[in-house]
Amino acid sequence: MDNIFTPMLRYLSSISTSDDHKGYPTSRRDGLLLSFTLILLFCSCSQQRGVSQSPSFFSPADTFQTQRFWTSVGIGATAYGIALVGLNTAWYADSEPTRFHTFDDWQEWRHMDKLGHIWTTYSETRWLTQGARWTGMDRSASRWTGLGVALALQTSVEILDAFSAKWGFSWPDMGANLLGAGIFATQDIIWKEQRILMKISSNPVPYSADPITGINGEGTSSLKARAHDLFGGTFAAQYLKDYNAMTIWMSVNPASFMAKKPAWLPSWLNVAVGISGEHLYGGYANTWTEDDGSTFQADPTTYPRMTQVFFSPDIDLSRISVRHPFWRTILHGLNFIKIPAPAFSLDSKGRWSGHWLYF
Predict the structure, then answer these.
(1) pLDDT tens for each residue of 327-355
(2) CB atoms within 10 A of CB 253
């Protein structure tokens, strides 16, 4: 296990470097949480549909299997421990401990971080539920296990925040976590399948390198440098942290709502609605201060803080018919990603745009 998880720990410890609370208090931590969520993807080896006649390692067991259960617990506990070490190293180590307190971050990042919490907890609940079903638990026990563990994971991080002077326990975060877990559980109870998927995508942003002079006339910076400080310089870090590039999607499967599906409508075709931010260079405003004390501001006329809503077709990979359990597992595992496709967008200024291929 050391050879597998050591690179993950190094990544978790390296995707965050700054201690500036005012500029971006949640972006870095959410990047770590999303990284942990992706680790859970590799810890769940099951699918919701199509158990083979001769179950393989990649098929859920028909009856409860103790060995599989402890395997899942061991891998999950290891991933959780790595995430906590990474959080403590990169996030809490330089923060002064304090008594339990709350922190209202509802207005930050035009709510993009809250959408990230919804997607994260939905995905954790889905993967953990699938992992529980792999051990042979029945549907109900698997669902409540997945939901309970996912909420426990997210709550433990909020509690760590609550005892940190720079942050605090966020009720808006907890509400988003409950909503994400509830979206999965409600569908599993009513329909015994996921007709509405929470997905994520990232469309890289070409940030301007043009120099920006400090408000006090001293120093220079750029939007590219600011974005690098906020969101990191690697594709993986930007995918998980860049609220200007990230889009959180609700992907709906129309055929699953029809009593009789038309022959022309593929069972795997979805319709997706996504939300993304644009021109976000700080939690509340596009003003920031560098280490040398120089303060900068992105031109609010050229770079107004906005929200974008996207409309696009999508594919539910879990509804693609494949026979081999391994490939079913792969498709289920990748089903958190919105498939690149043409899209229309509407921004908060009322402007429509078309995109031949939106990631």
Answers:
(1) 888 898 899 999 999 999 999 999 999 99
(2) 22
Give 54 or 233, the one with higher predicted confidence. 233
Q: CA nearest 144: which of 158, 132, 162?
A: 132
CA distances in angstroms from 354 to 119, 207, 311, listed in the order given: 25, 20, 10
In the numeric block, the tokens 């996207």 are attached to: 310
For residues 122 and 8, give the distance between their C-alpha atoms in angstroms, rounded to a whole number: 22
Identify the pLDDT of residue 234: 77
The two tokens of residue 15 are 């995707």
Domain assignments of the chain as residue spans, ordered by start? 2-358
Rounded CA separation 47/154 (Å): 24
Summarize pLDDT for 204-223 with one digit per residue, the tens.
899 999 999 998 888 889 99
**8-state DSSP, 90:** I
Q: Give yes or no for residue 35 having a pLDDT over 60.
A: no
Contact 115, 275 (CB under 8 A): yes
0.85 exceeded by the pTM?
no
3-state SS, residue 142 = helix
Residue with tokens 């995109």: 355
DSSP, residue by residue, 151-217: HHHHHHHHHHHHTBTT--B-HHHHHHHHHHHHHHHHHHHHTSS-SEEEEEEE---------EE-TTS
Under a CB-based contact definition with an 8 Å cutoff, are residues 341 and 314 in contact?
A: yes
Helix, strand, coil share (%) of the chain residues, nearest 5: 45, 20, 35
Of residues 88 and 285, more confidently modeled: 285
Q: What tokens appear for 348 in the block?
A: 């908060």
CA distance 22 to 166: 9
Q: pLDDT at residue 49 above 50?
A: no
Query: CA angle at residue 181 from 175 to 185, to 5 degrees?
Result: 135
